[in-house]
Structures are given as structure tokens and as C-alpha cells.
Amino acid sequence: MPVEIDVQHVARLARLALTEEEQERFRRQLGLILEHAENVREVAAVDVPPTSHPIPRSNVLRPDDPAPSLSHEEAMASAPEEESDRFKVPRVVEQE
Amino acid sequence: MAEADTAKATRFETVIGLECHVELSTATKMFCGCLNAFGAPPNTNVCPVCLGHPGTLPVPNEKAIEYTIKIGLALGCRIAPHSIFHRKNYFYPDMPKNFQISQYDLPLCVGGHLDIEVDGETHRVGITRVHLEEDTGKTVHGGATGRIGGAEYALEDYNRAGVPLVEVVSEPDMRSAEQARAYLTELRATLESLGVSDVRMEEGSLRCDANVSLRRPGSEELGTKIEIKNLNSIRSLYRALNFEEERQQVALERGEPLIQETRHWDEGKGITTHGRSKEYAFDYRYFPEPDLAPLEPDPQWIETLRAELPELPAARRRRFQDELGLSAHQAGLVASSAEWARFFEATVSAGADPRAAANWMTGDLAALLRETHQSLTAAKVTPEHLAELVKLLDEQVISSAGAKVALAEAFATGASVDAVVEAKGLRQVGDSEALGGMIEQVIEENPAPVEQFRKGKEGVLGFLVGQVMKKSGGAANPKVAAELLRERLSGSG
To answer: DSSP string spanning A20-87?
Structure first.
């Protein structure tokens, strides 16, 4: 059973500019993945709880103790550009 | 305005719900060991986890979970036996991971309430949920105009990214700006008492968004919801809600439809304006955070935390009334902040009469703090100062005018009240000999009032006493001065 996906919408959310060919290719590939998930849904009976975590563990916590941060230089090494000690990135314009 | 008020009272009911964000005062961030500190140089408290480098794993801060449970307990919430974190996906550079770790359908605390008092009436506001998430980084827009619209680029400081942030969501249970203000004030005081946040609205450690709509009284249905953002103080919240109430009412009266939107409060102009929202798509694609194990707090841990809860503001107000004899109004002022309550109790412990101490705190001391933009904790004045002041006043060693001078001086310099009284000569002059000269001068300089008094105009005496007080620099005992004046003027007519 083929599952349709709005590739344009997903691409817009992910800020990706896709060509027509890419859109078609991803539509098919992502459709297959969703189809697989759809199959799982079919076999999931009411007595099977939804599994968000594969290993049954809980309360994995750490004490509130400081650990060293990166040096400012190390941190900024991954910045595409830098200005005033900050990461300089393209502006994001909100759309309605 | 009067017309609008009438219409408001009879034709529409205001419905308000608040979403408050609270930065927790943990030592470290939510999911990594970077320092959680305000005001550090940009991008110095950052590491691969909070910068979202590939391959890193978040681990929740136990203290943050503890603080969130305490907030939930203080608000009468149920602590969920099982809760999980979700990823809230959005593409905005203030989160380097392109998602924010938050909670979605299984928050840590659900279904509580907060009681507020407005005009002597208690009103219960429901709490929908209290959940835990991480704060975002801070964006500065750069380029041509400095405004977001004309910005050419954005500059990101990720020190705040990953700071533990609690969201407290209320039910739409408030019906006026006054109630909303009381709610935020009470929530702030509660958080302050719990010691889980420094609740500084001006530094953004407590932030608030308001949802407001109008409907016909008796209607169960909610009207069109408007969300107001950028409320940086309790006063802003109050003003913004009053403005928005009025704006929506006028629109509804004219039959103009309201649209569901986010509006921004402009503090300078005193208006709300249509705001662009970074969540333009409203498609966060929430999914369970696979890198974080569920939270299943041990019931015993919860009970330990419950036992650790301090006295909350409402209980403190009651105690100050019942045990220390404060009026409801005084108790409300003194007990509503942990800082003030501590100062007040220390003053009373140092021997001061509770009501006198409360009056000085909410009167002169509050005014001095306002004038100098200081917090009580940072001020040089101590509970001992105030207790001494109240005692000297009670023993009539100083007059209330002298006490004002002494308090201002102790406030400015931190010197003991005794020393200030000596240095400034504030000891009340009560003997007739010392006052006699001043009284003669006052009589000489004010022939008209003196004449009026002699003709039987009693009220003028107060004015003449005032003149004696002025001459003595506040040191005269006003009671003695009045007696001497009366004696002198009725005697040798």
C-alpha cells in the first residue's frame, strides 16, 4: 500500500531546496519508509505498548557538577563565520 | 473610557491563561556539565553536547529534575510516575541541534493549582502542567538597520542554549488583568521561596506569555485566542492585558472579526502589534527523544522532596497575620517575597514590634530601594538597623522625622542607627529650656498664624509645631513642642 508524502512541505521545513528530480526520488524513498512503518502499525495489537526506547531503562541522570567547557577558540572553530565572539549565520526570515 | 468600561463589564468576559518559563538556578546546564551562568562572555559556556555536535549524548541534570518536581509539588500537581522527553523540531539558529529537547504528551507534573488573592477574595487558578525543557541560545540581529526585518545576518551566543527551563502552563482561569498580575506575582514568590530560580524577569530567568480572549458572559466557548509575547515584567503583563482587552472589545463591538495570532508587546508605545512568529509552520514534528531514558521518579524520592518544601508565600501571609498581628495588606506586602519575609522576620527577632517593622519596610525602606534601584539583599541596611530604629522611636529617643533621617543615613552608609542619631544630633529635644528659644523664634516669625491660634483656630498649632520641627532639624519632640507652644500662647496673651 503506497503512502503519500508531501515532499515539498518536508523540504520547506528542513530548509532544503530540492530539484524536481530530487523531489521525485525522495518522494519514492520516503514513501517506502512510511510504508514500512504502516506495516508495523498493522501488526501492533492493543496489548503491545508503543516503544519509544528499545532498552527498558529509566532515570539515567547525572549530578549537577560542572565539567569543563570547550575553550572559546575551540567552540568557534566550527562556526561558519564569526563576529563579536558569536556564530555568524544567515538571517532567518519568518514567513507566514 | 468610562463607556468602554461599562461595556466591558456587561457585554464581554475576559479569559486569560499564562505560560511562564522559568530558568532553573542549577550550577550546570540541563544535559551537559557547562556552567549555567548569566552574563558570561559569549560562547564560553559551551561544549559539544550543547553545541549539538554529532555523536554527543545528553544526560539529564538530576538537580533540574528535583527542582521541577518541587515546583510541581508546591503547585499541588501530580508527579507523573512515567514521563519522557521529546524532540521539538524547528529550524532556527538559536538551537544548534535544529531541535529543542522538551516534553510533550507525558510531562513531569500535571494538574495543580495556585491560589491568588485579589481585592480580598481568594481565587483558584488551575495549573495544566509543569514540564522541563532546555533554553535556547541568544540571537543578535546584525546588519543594515539592526532590526530583525532589515537584518542581513544573525549572531548567535550559545551560552544559554541548554539551560534548564521549566514551563508552567495555567488553565484559562483568569478573568482580569488584575488576576493575571496576582497569579504571576504569586508564582514568582513561590518559585523564589523554593529556591529553584532567581526569578529575575529583567534578566529573562522568568518569562511569561499570555493567552487572552473575550467572550459573552455565560458562554462556555472560548473566543479567538491571542497570544502576547515579550512581557518582561509584571507591569508589562498588566499593561499589555489591559490594552489587549480594550482592543479586542472595540473590534468585537464593531463586528470586526479577530484572527488567532501572536502579538508583541511594545513597552515604549504601550501597545501590542502583530508579530511574526518563528514557529511559522507550527509543525514541530515532535517525537520521543531516543537519546534520553524515561523519567520514573521513585515515590520515596518524591516524598523526601515534599518534606523539604519550605513555607510557601500563602502560608507565610497567614502566619504573619495570625501570629504577628499584621493586617492582610501588610502581610501581603511583607510576605510575598522570600527576601522581604526573611528581612522582616530577622527584624522582629531582633526585638522590633512587627507592625512597626512592616510599616517602615513597606514605607520608607521600599521608597529608598526604589530610588536607588537596589534589592533588599544588596542594600547596606540590615534588620538590626531597622530593629534599633523602631526601638529608639518607641522609647521616644527620636521623633519619626528623626527616624526617617536616620534610616536614610543608615541605608546610605551602613552606619549603626545609634551612631547616626549621635552624629546628626537626632536625639529628641524634649526639655523646655532647649526648645524655648526655637519656640520664641517661631512665634516671632509667624505673627499671622499665631494670631489665628489665639483667636481659637486650633488647627494652626500643627503648622507651628511643624515650624519648630523644621528649626530643630527633626530633633524636637513634637508632643513637648506642642505643649510648650500652647502654654506660651495661651499664657501671656
So the answer is: HHHHHHHHHHHHHHHHHHHHHHHH--TTS---S-SS------B-S-------HHHHHTT-SSEETTEE
Element (H, E) at B212: strand B206-215
Tally of structural domains, chain A: 1
Question: CA nearest B86 in A: which residue?
Answer: A52
Tell me if A69 and B34 make a contact (CB, 8 A cut-off). yes
Q: How far lies B345's CA from each of B186, B320, B329, B393, B410, in Å?
A: 20, 9, 17, 19, 19
Burial class of residue B389 in the structure, from the number of CB atoms within 10 Å of its CB (0-12 exposed, 13-18 middle, 19+ buried): buried
Q: Is residue A14 part of a domain?
A: yes
How much of chain B, in percent, has pLDDT values that exceed 90? 63
B100 within 8 A of B76, measured Cβ to Cβ: no
Record: contact B63-A63, CB cut-off 8 A:
yes
Task: Look up the CATH number of the domain holding residue A13.
Answer: 1.10.20
Using 50, 70 and 90 to split pLDDT, how confident is the model at A71? very high
How much is the pLDDT for B181? Answer: 96
- Nearest by CB to residue A13, choosing from B140, B281, B288, is B281
CB-nearest to A69 from B45, B288, B296 is B45
Quick one: angle between helices B338-349 and B177-194, nearest 10? 60
Question: Which of B493, B492, B12 minimizes the C-alpha distance to B247?
Answer: B12
Q: What is the mean pLDDT of residues B33-47?
A: 96
Contact B43 A95 (CB under 8 A): no
- Report chain B residues whose CB lies below 8 A from the CB of A15: 91
**Banded pLDDT at A12 (limits 50, 70, 90):** confident
For residues B411-418, average pLDDT: 90
Beta bridge partners, B156, equal A87, B139
- A87 domain residue, yes or no: no
Determine the distance in angstroms separating the CA of B211 from the nearest CA of chain A, rounded to an integer: 20
Residue B107 to residue B295: CA distance in whole angstroms: 10
Distance to chain A for B107, nearest Cα, Å: 15
A75 touches chain B (CB under 8 A): yes
pLDDT in tens, B222-238: 888 999 988 989 999 99
Q: What is the set of domains in chain B, with CATH numbers?
A: 13-304 (no CATH), 311-423 (no CATH), 432-492 (1.10.10.410)
On whether the pTM is more than 0.95, the answer is no
Asked whether residue A28 is domain-assigned, the answer is: yes
Query: pLDDT tens digit string along B118-147?
Result: 988 899 999 999 999 999 999 988 765 555
Question: Any CB–CB contact under 8 A between B260 and chain A?
Answer: no
Residues 41-70 on A with a CB inside 8 Å of B are: 52-53, 55, 57-70
Arithmetic mean of pLDDT, A44-53: 78
What ipTM was reported for this prediction?
0.85
CB B91 within 8 A of CB A94: no
Of A66, A89, A94, the CB nearest to B153: A89
Q: What is the pLDDT of residue B149?
A: 56
